[in-house]
Specification:
8 helices; alpha/beta; two-stranded antiparallel sheet
Length: about 300
Amino acid sequence: MRRYILKTFLIAIIAGLGVSGGTIHTYAQSTPQAQLGEGHAYEIIGSEVWDVPDPVSGRGYQVFVALPPSYAEQPQRLYPVLYVTDADYAFPIVRQIGRRLNVEGPQIEEFILVGLSYGKGEDGAASRRRDYTPTPNGPSSSPPGTIHGQGAAYQKYLADRVKPFVAGHYRVDPDRSLFLGHSYGALLGAQILFSEPGLFSGYILGSPSLWFDKRHALKMEADYASHNDDLPAKVLLYVGEYEAKRKGDLRYSQTVDMVADNLALESVLQSREYPSLQLRSVVLDDEDHLTVAPRGFTHGLKYLLTLR
């Protein structure tokens, strides 16, 4: 009897710790731990932060990781991975949406969430302008000294450093790497989609800044189409109703028409008739560029991770 109790206790310890890639992790439990009090900073309990620097640029970056509730309990299971840009904002929101969708029964697959930080010690706006844009031709309204156009270098960092790091530390499904970006983050996603589509199998492109540098992303799409007869990816495009341009009505954009740009991208992709492309595009009512993201994230998760 004592031997049975000891064996059961050891199994419980192993399941609670979990081992992956030689590293011991602690995972989020179904009953969350209490926050530290006495004025300590609020934490996302069950998350992990890793330094993953870029040896080429010499910049420091971090990845934030949240593992699914079943991760420790199912040690043989492989999970899809969702990489999200603008992690300071998107990581906590996507984590909670993903879990909330399954509160009253599973609607989507569980997934490993990876947040992509801005450069360590850098202003977030400056970091994203540099890393998420495809050319140096940024808008004239940019602050003096702003650097644009290093999206290709950041894409290589994702391919050469971040994805191998995640695959080496966690039980990932190698065929299910997904990308989520909003605004400039979605512009980066469009760049990847039209230059190295196999880097991810699914893309959530929210309010993509297709206007950047005279719609350079649409030129990238045309160049891709001229050399390829298929685009193997599952893509969701979303944009807010009030991102259309309507001068004088302050609910709407006063500078660029992102709804028209999104519809243009949707139309041209449909016209290609790529056999392996799965595409959905939505205009979300009563939303603008700043409010639309949480609804768009929800649509994206349900589209890419719906239970089969």
